[in-house]
Amino acid sequence: MCLAVPMKVKNIRWPNAEVLAEGLRREVNIQLVPRVNIGDYVLVHAGFAIQVIDGKWAKENLELWEQIKS
Question: What is the pTM of this model?
Fold first, then answer.
């Protein structure tokens, strides 16, 4: 099973972006989503942003992660 995590784009320095979720910062490759912008949410898998996603959906999923962790 593969797992992709929704993360918010904080900074872009092509071909990478700094992303954030739950206080965790990572640098990921964004070549698969070339039209991504700062403030967008992306699904991150294995160091790559694989899809730009809706902010509302991302926030709902991050809340579910919090519930699971508790």
Answer: 0.89
